[in-house]
Specification:
This protein has about 375 residues and is of the alpha/beta class. The chain has 2 domains: about 230 residues, TIM Barrel, CATH 3.20.20; about 100 residues, Lyase, Ornithine Decarboxylase, Chain A, domain 1 (Beta Barrel), CATH 2.40.37.10. It contains 11 helices and 18 strands. Strands 1, 10, 11, 12, 13, 14, 15, 16, 17 and 18 form a 10-stranded mixed beta sheet that branches. An 8-stranded parallel barrel has the order 2-3-4-5-6-7-8-9. It binds pyridoxal-5'-phosphate. Pyridoxal-5'-phosphate (PLP) binds next to helix 9 and strand 9.
Length: about 375
């Protein structure tokens, strides 16, 4: 093993998740597979071809670099959509390569037109509307101007989308705000339609919105976290289960993260383990070092807290997580030795370490813990 840990990507689990999502959205809706953040840590280059095998042919990213990475590995008929940052010099590249991109200010719209004219090729734009997130998007005031510009440049623009994003559809505490956004979108969209500007895709839903507000799905849904087998938060899963007889989780985790024991050591009662004095051996102990630390994406906040699996037993991280290593208590696993498998995320024997168990600190932590997994850790396809 050249690297100190590796990540497994489960093809069968992914196929199951897409079956669930497809079933839920119906056959007509375009699924845009959201693969920003290195496909939520799963690895863009590994994930995109697997998603294509499940029938996915539209991928959403945040920026140009991610679009570039997909372009080199996707199959020819897959589309790419940049939802966030694209710098003016790259707009030409995007148009030339049929990359769709969000437009949320007049300057970007003008730049798209200008480059499209020069290339004699339409720019595929998604007009993003400000409906209450207050991040990016055209607001009501600028709508007339945008419609005028689009209408008079239809030779150079394909209106691929009219879209918006909800400010927290996963939580009922945002209900009023999200409902307001749904109304605003619908009003603003009507203004486009009234002028004969009909987008190819009306799209507003992320994973949470597609589950909790089905009316937000329209022609396309931008699905991130669900495809990887996670609920946006616990509340969304509970909401899904409500009134259902079958209480099992239809989603399956796609990712596992594994390493090996590097060395073992006997520790006497009263000794401290690792840097400083955060862990005092309260008994004679056996510990093992694992060559994974915070530089590999294992958070330092899991010092003296994290759990991993060895020989099908759940054991605890003792002492602080270092940059490249951590120490675990294997007193109760007498056979454990150097070279044995350690599961950081995933299944072993009867036990399971979930990504959520990385910390109880935040509902959103799935997203954060996943995207912190370094790109250089090898991804291996299983299943
Ligand atoms: C990340 C993102 C999504 C996907 O969100 P999930 O909660 O992972 O489904 C959808 N739309 C936009 C604009 C995003 O940035």
């Amino acid at each position: 093993m050249l690297h100190t840990s590796y990540i497994e990507i489960d093809r069968k689990a992914l196929a199951q998740n897409f079956r669930f999502i497809r079933d839920r959205l119906g056959p007509q809706v375009k699924i845009s597979s959201v693969v920003k953040g290195n496909a939520y840590g799963h690895g863009i280059e590994t994930f995109v071809p697997l998603a294509e095998m499940c029938g996915i042919d539209h991928f959403a990213v945040f920026n140009t670099d991610e679009a570039f990475r997909i372009k080199t590995i996707r199959s020819e008929n897959s589309e790419i959509m940049i939802m966030g940052m694209i710098d003016t010099p790259e707009i030409k590249w995007a148009i030339r390569n049929d990359i769709e991109f969000y437009v949320f200010d007049p300057a970007r719209l003008e730049s798209a037109i200008e480059n499209a004219k020069r290339l004699n090729k339409k720019a595929k734009v998604h007009i993003e509307l400000e409906t209450g997130m207050n991040r990016t998007g055209f607001d009501k005031k600028s709508l007339q101007l945008v419609k005028n510009i689009v209408s008079s440049n239809l030779e150079y623009l394909e209106l691929t989308g009219v879209c918006t994003h909800y400010a927290g559809a996963e939580s009922i505490s945002n209900y009023v705000r999200v409902k307001g956004q749904i109304r605003k979108y619908s009003t603003m969209l009507r203004e486009f339609l009234n002028d004969g500007l009909v987008p190819k895709y009306r799209h507003t839903a992320c994973s949470a919105a597609s589950m909790r507000y089905p009316q937000t799905v329209m022609d396309m849904a931008r699905i991130g976290i669900l495809q990887y087998g996670f609920w946006p938060n616990r509340e969304t899963f509970i909401d899904y289960l409500a009134g259902r007889e079958d209480k099992s989780d239809p989603l399956q985790r796609v990712i596992s993260w594994k390493s090996k024991i590097m060395a073992t050591k006997e520790i006497k009662t009263g000794e401290f383990i690792g840097y400083g004095t955060t862990f005092l051996a309260h008994k004679d102990m056996r510990v093992a070092t694992i060559p994974v630390g915070y530089s590999h994406g294992y958070s330092r906040s899991l010092s003296n807290l994290g759990r991993v699996l060895v020989h099908g037993t759940r054991v605890i991280v003792v002492g602080v997580v270092n940059m490249n290593m951590m120490t675990i208590d294997i007193t109760d696993v007498p056979d454990a030795k150097a070279g044995d498998e350690v599961v950081l995320i995933g299944h072993q024997g009867e036990f399971d370490i979930s990504v959520a168990s990385f910390s109880e600190m935040s509902d959103q932590l799935n997203y954060e813990a996943l995207t912190r997994l370094p790109a250089e850790t090898p991804r291996v396809i299983v299943g």
